Amino acid sequence: MAKPQKEPKLPGTNRRTLLNAMEALKHPRVDVKDTKAIEQRITDYLQFCVEKDVAPSVPGCANWLGVSVQTLQAWYQGATATPEHQLVAAKFYAIMQDVWSQDMHEGDINNIAGIFVGKAMFGYKDTQEIVVTNRVTNELTAADLIAESKMLPGGADLIIDGTGKMLDDSPTESEQKEPVEQKEQKKKLHRRNSEKN
């Protein structure tokens, strides 16, 4: 099967992308202690994305704030700063997840790239759920256990009493008594050996 050809970038695409990213340089670093200023800068960034028809991103927003992506993620996760920082970051991340979800649903972004974004930016993980069910419950009676045991390979030969305990029907190996002649011979041999000594 032929690989689909990647469409070439339109002329000027790289220029436009770089100019949009450089827009962040026009804004001074936000005061990271002022959550109102952080919220306003995030709003400005999203408004810029709307006006320029640019896809918003976590790295883009971090660039506008003048902080690292790790700092923005730490605010969102509540690992650093104040609850107010977490609330502001959570609002932004909620918008980003909504945009990401719509883009994935409508096929606007490649599935592999979309999964990477979900894991890297929003903490999504691959999970596998294993459900274990137990057939034997506490409601089984001794009679049920006996009936089930009889169905096991070799179970027909089991002898089980009314309490569900298996009884040993195999013959016990009792100590075999030595024949009288052998005992007498051993005694004689023992006497001879003691007389020699």
Order of helices and strands: HHHHHHHEEH
Q: Radius of gyration from the CA trace?
A: 40 Å
Largest sheet: 2 strands, antiparallel
Percentage of residues in strands:
under 5%
Placed side by side, the strands forming the largest sheet appear as 1-2
- How many H/I helices? 8
Tell me the distance between the termini: 100 Å
Task: List its salient traits.
single chain; 197 residues; mainly alpha; 2 domains; two-stranded antiparallel ribbon; 8 helices; 2 strands; 55% helix; elongated
Describe the structure.
The chain is an all-alpha fold and 197 residues long. The chain has two domains: 13-122; 139-170, no CATH class. It has eight helices and two strands, in the order H-H-H-H-H-H-H-E-E-H. It has helices spanning 13-22, 35-52, 58-65, 69-77, 83-106, 111-122, 142-151, 180-196; strands at residues 159-160, 166-167. A two-stranded antiparallel ribbon has the order 1-2. It is elongated. The model has no long low-confidence stretch (mean pLDDT 78).
What is this structure's SSE topology?
Layout: H1 13-22, H2 35-52, H3 58-65, H4 69-77, H5 83-106, H6 111-122, H7 142-151, E1 159-160, E2 166-167, H8 180-196
Antiparallel strand pairs: 1-2
Helix pairs in contact: 2-3, 2-5, 4-5, 5-6
Outline:
It is built from 8 helices and 2 strands; from the N terminus they run αααααααββα. It is an all-alpha fold. The protein has 2 domains: 13-122; 139-170, no CATH class.
